[in-house]
Amino acid sequence: MKRTSYLQCAPKLMQHLFTQEQLLNEEVTRTLDTKLWELVKLRASQLNQCGYCIVMHSRQAMEQGESARRIIALNAWRDMSGFTAKERLALTLCEQLTNAQPIDDTLYCALSEEFSDDALVTLTVAINAINAWNRVVKMFKPEPDE
Fold first, then answer.
1. What is the pTM assigned to this prediction?
2. What is the CATH number for 48?
3. Nearby residues of 34 by Cβ (< 8 Å), 6 or more positions away
4. Is pLDDT of 27 > 80?
5. Taking Cα atoms as reference points, which of 25, 48, 46 lies closest to residue 37?
C-alpha cells in the first residue's frame, strides 16, 4: 500500500527537519567528525529497524570514507575491534538515547572527558534528529527514490 507523502502533505514541518540537518552538518563539521556522525545515524537506524535509513546511511558512511567492514560490524560493535574509544562512547550514548535509557553520571563523565561541551550537545541533538527521521520514515515508508 502506498502511504502518504510526508514531504507533500507537510512541507513546512518537514522543512524544520531539513533545516536541523543543515545546522547539524555545520556543527558536526565544527565539533565532531563526519564519519562518527554517519556511524551514529546508521546505528540508530539499525536499532529502529529503519531499512530505508540503513541503506541511505550505509551509502553515506562509505561516501565519507567508512569501510564496508566497519559498517557490517556496526551491529555488533561491542564485540568487534576497530572502533575507537570515542566511537564506542558515541555509540553507547546513541543506544541509550534511542532506547530511552537514562544516562548515568559514569557515562556522562566518560563522555565529557572525550567530547567538548559543544560536541556533546551536537552529538545529543544529532541522535535526537536521526531518531525523529527514523520514526517519520517508518510511518510513511517512502520509496528509495523519493
1. 0.93
2. 1.20.1290.10
3. 28, 64
4. yes
5. 25
